[in-house]
C-alpha cells in the first residue's frame, strides 16, 4: 500500500510539473517567470522536508536522552531511599522485639522450656560483622540495640541526596528533614509500653508511604515495554517482597516473645507471608537473572531457609505457649540473614537497569550526531544543487516551449479520440464490462434469475427488400432502428443487437431492476408500436411497416464472447422462447 501511495504521489507530482511546463508557452513573460519560481519551489519542498525531519529526529533524540537521564536519577534515588527503607525495617523489627521482651523476664525464660525451643536450634547469622545485628538476652540489651538501629536509620535518611518527594505528597514525605522529624516524634521512650502490633502497623504505614514514592518513580521511568521496563517492574516487585518479609520478621519476633499472637497479628502475618512469596515469584517471572541470583545466594545457606520455613509453618498454625526470647531471636536473626542474602537481587537489578540506560543514552547520542551530520550535509549541498537546477530549468525551458504547443494539441486530440472511442465501446458493451476489458480483467459469465426479453422483426421484410435497392434497404433499416434507439433512453432497458430486420432488447440486465423488467419492456413495446404506425416507407409512398413482437420473462445467462470483436451475448431458453413467440405471433 505504501509503495502504491508513493507511486501515486510521484505520478501526481510528475503530472503537475508537466502541466506547468505546458503552460509556460501560453502565458506572458511575467507569468512564465512565476511558473519557473513554482518549479523551483517543487525543488525546495523536499529540502525543507529533509531539514524538518532532521530537526524532529534531533529533538526526539534530545528528549529521549533527557528522559533517560531522569530515569537514571530516579533509579539512584530509589537505591538511596531503599537503603533507608531497609534500616527502618530493621528498626521496626527491633522495636517489636523490645516491646515483646518487656512482657517476660529473663529469669522466667531460663526456668521454662517452651516446645518451640525443642523444635528449633538457633542458627547464627552468617553476615559480615559490620552488618550483624546484636542479639539480646535482656530487655536492656534490646533497648541498646534499638537505639543503635535508630541512629543507623537517622544516618541513612541524612545520607539521601535525591529525595523523590514532591509538594503534592503528604507533609512528612516532602523532604528528608521533615521525614526524620516525624520519625523522631513518634519513637517510643523506654518507659512507654504500647502494643507491639500497633508499632508494627505504624512503621508499616510509614515505610509503605516511602515505598510509594519509590514505586511511583519506577512507574514513571522507562518506555513501558521491552527489557528495561521488565527490570524496572521487577525492582518494584522486589521492594514490595522485601517489605512483606520485614513485616514477617517483626510480627514473628513479637509472637515468639509473648508466646502467643492476637488474631490481627496472625492474619497480618499470614497475609504478608503470601504476599512476599507472590511478589518474589512475579519478580522472577519478569527477570530471570533475579531467579539465578536468588538461587546462588541461598545455595550454601539452605539450612537457614529450611529453618525459616519450619518456624513460619509454626507461626501460621497460631502457636500458644510460654514466652521464648531465644526463639524470637532465632527468628529475628535468621530472617535478617535471609533478607540480607537476597538483597543481591536489588543490586543486580539496579546494575542491569543502569546498563540499559547507558545503552539508551549512547543510542540517543548517536542518533543526534547522525541527524546533525545529515543536516549539515543538506545545508552544504542544497545551495549548489539549487543553482544547478535553476540553470538547467532555464536552459531546457526554451526547448520545452518549442514543443509545448505541438504536445498540447496532440494531447487534446488524443483525449477527444479517447472519449469518442469510449462512447463507441459503451454502445457496443455495457460500460462496466467495457471498463473491465480495458483494464485487462477477465469478465466472468453472470446468471440473472428474472429478465424480460423483447424480440421483434419487420413483417414482410423479404418482399419489401425485393422491391428496394440495397441502399434503400439499408437506409430504411437505419432510419427505423435509429428511431427505436432514440426511444430506449426513456426506459430501463438494454439493447442487445440488431441482425437484419430483427431487433432485440432486454430489461433486468446488466443492471438488475427487481420486478420492474416486465413493465419496462411492455411500455417500450407500446411506444415502438406507436412509432411503427406512423413510419412510412420513404421510397414506397403510402406503405407503412408492420412488426411482430415477442416477449418472455425468465432466467438468462449473460457473458462476453470473443476477443477481437467481443460481444455481450445472452443464452438460455428465455431467448429462444421470446423469438418463437415473435415468429408465431400475428
TrEMBL record:
Any one GO MF annotation of this record: guanylate cyclase activity
Q: Give a GO biological-process term.
A: receptor guanylyl cyclase signaling pathway
Give, as one word, the top-level EC class.
lyase
Q: Which SUPFAM superfamilies does the UniProt entry name for this protein?
A: Nucleotide cyclase
Name the keywords, alphabetized: Glycoprotein, Lyase, Membrane, Nucleotide-binding, Transmembrane, Transmembrane helix
Q: Name one Pfam family in it.
A: NIT
What span is annotated as the signal peptide, if there is one? none
Example of a GO cellular component annotation carried by this entry:
plasma membrane
Documented EC number(s)? 4.6.1.2
Q: Give the subcellular location.
A: Membrane
PANTHER family given in the database record: GUANYLATE CYCLASE 32E, GUANYLYL CYCLASE
User: What is the recorded name of this protein?
Assistant: Guanylate cyclase 2G
Q: Which organism is it from?
A: Hypsibius exemplaris
